[in-house]
Design brief:
homodimer; about 150 residues; 9 strands; six-stranded antiparallel β-sheet; alpha+beta
């Protein structure tokens, strides 16, 4: 499996095993991140910067992967790829789920019960629908959220 | 090669071929995203939200991959993994370079000469050093930049 292959490669961390994937879609009209119009503004997409404090299970990459995938689907997004890196010795996780409508990323600091999450979605998705999934998955005592509208043209 | 394998998988876009990689580092002390102190503030990392307008070469995934890697290295970051998706029919690219110190992501709209870039770096990196690399690679006529300090604790 890909994951096992990756494990084998990354035992030589860091520089000799940088993986690069460049993928072309063979399907027409697969772009789902057209510009949207909302509240009288026109822009590419909504980017939520979400800081989770007092959070749990931040050192479990399988759990984090499942949570971010569920969050993406809850927001109406299409998942293309995910990659998570599990660090030693603190157990922190860094990773991203790439979507047809942009991405969800996470970086965790289990020793501080803190995670920085980014939910960037375009097209018909609603990134706010991802928030309850994150709350369920990580049980944060405090959530700090900031919204940025990227690529504003009007 | 991994890239060829991925190409083969994604020709069945979108849902049946979601790739998931979960990687654990076998090396101790590979964490490079410790909290920093600057300007009297203590926080996890600096996150630059960079919107490029009037930009070129936004439909060339190999060029974008090379540019983001060069940008990461210029900022002093350690590259772990990159993945780029090339969309049809507009040729837009979505992707990310995952770093030991967080990530750089990009989403391009070649038909609008617009790209949304995120440069999230922790530890000893300086994400501002990535900006000239992006300017060189994509020749934007206008760059909009916003800085967010993530995970502020003091």
């Amino acid at each position: 499996m890909n994951a096992l292959t990756q494990l084998g490669m990354v035992s030589d961390f860091p520089s000799e095993n940088q993986t690069t994937d460049i993928v072309s879609a063979a399907v027409e009209d697969d772009r789902k991140d057209y510009f949207v119009e909302r509240d009288g503004m026109r822009y590419a997409g909504t980017h939520l910067l979400v800081d989770l404090w007092g959070a749990s299970r931040l050192d479990d990459p399988e759990h984090i992967d499942a949570a971010l995938r569920e969050a993406a689907l809850a927001a109406g997004a299409t998942i293309l790829h995910s990659h998570f890196h599990h660090f030693s010795p603190n157990g922190g996780v860094s990773g991203v789920v790439i979507l047809a409508e942009s991405h969800i990323s996470i970086h965790t600091w289990p020793e501080r019960s803190f995670a920085a999450v980014d939910i960037f979605m375009c097209g018909a998705c609603d990134p706010y629908l991802a928030i309850p999934v994150l709350q369920e998955a990580f049980s944060p005592t405090d959530v700090r959220l900031d919204e940025q509208r990227r690529g504003r043209i009007a």
